[in-house]
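Quick check before the chapter quiz. The format below is the same one you will see on the exam, so make sure you can read both the input and the output lines.
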Amino acid sequence: MMTSRRTGLALVAWLLLSAPPGEAQQPQRAAALTLDDAVRTALEYHPSVLAARAGESEASAIAGQQSAQWWPQLGVQGSVFRYQKQMLVFPIHELSQDAFQFDRTLLQGSLNLGWTLFEGGARSARISGARAQEDAAGARRAGSELTLIADVARAYLDVLSSHGTLLAQRQSLRALAAERERVQRLLSEGRAAQVELLRVDAAIAQAEAEEVATATGLDTAERRLARLLGVRPEETRAPRLSPVRLADTTLMADRELVLEQFTVGNPQLAEAQSQTEAAEAARKQAVAEWWPRLDVAGAYLLFTSPSFDLQGEWNVGVRLSYPLFTGGARSRTVSTASARAELAREQYRLARLRGEEAVDRTLGAVLDWRAQVVAIGTAVRHLGEVARIEQLSLQEGAGTQTDYLRAEAELRRASAALVRARHAEIAARVELASLTGTLSPQWIEDMLEITP
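Here is the expected output.
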């Protein structure tokens, strides 16, 4: 029994003291990592946010590119050709002796101006679609930031929960160790039975098993937080984190107000709305293919060769184009775009329904965890008093060891449950803020009290 205890304690020590020796011996957290710092570090590092920001920049550039179609297109061209035989240097506009000028080397240039007067609204639809995609990319970037902030907060709280649970288990182990010393002393004096020692050893073994499981979970949580921040696991060990608690435990506003905030601020819903607008713009662009296209164009042309002076002339005109037969391609293009627009509308409705369901579920979780924090807090106070009384009764010979060990185990589990409930309540508030789009580093500063 004692060998298994030493093995369990050794494993716990290895998991918790994996930081360098110099850091493990440091009594103060000189480089404390607050939740604010963790969130800002993650926002600067994590590839999910950086990729979303790059996507937003790309969508913005594409929108600008499409908007440029409202401007006329101006360009220049130039060429120099050397022919095997003599070629006309200037265009022939009349039949005269001076009109026929020949040379083997021809130089030509042009200044061209073109602009689309009408194409059935396709240009406006392309621009509207590109802007809608830009809005969708912005919402996607905002959603990535909210998701990352929530992930970091949950990982941070997981570390604190596991660490708080571990501290409660260690406190219980210290009390059990004191009880074992008492029983061992009485056993050596012949005033206790061997079964009492076996009973307390069994309780210690169970508490040690719980401690090992908690220590393993703590190490996993610390490493997950480190991956989110892009730092070494040693920098996210529990002793370096700052405790957090709600600055205001007042219950949330009514459901209708929260749903209104969700409708206005949820980035996933905003992205779905923008995708709907982009799909509708694509449908309008497809319909525009049934209209003719009218372009205006003009050019100033230059002709010369090494043997003659430079001559120039201009032209201007309009061009009308319309495909008479496409084999049904236009109709199918419109049908495809219409189906995609319908799909986008239904996906928006689905996103709204799922979001409202998530809001209801999260609101319920906030209320539930608030009630559990209050109830478990009361239970911990009462169980602490019960364990104290049972210990005194046992020392005075009026109580039983079984009652004391049971009270100690209940206190240990209730203390761990209180730690988890407090952090779960914060996590539920974070999730609700993420759904309504209000979660941000500033929200964390305003809603949470962080002890540096």
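If your answer matched, good. The mean pLDDT is 88.
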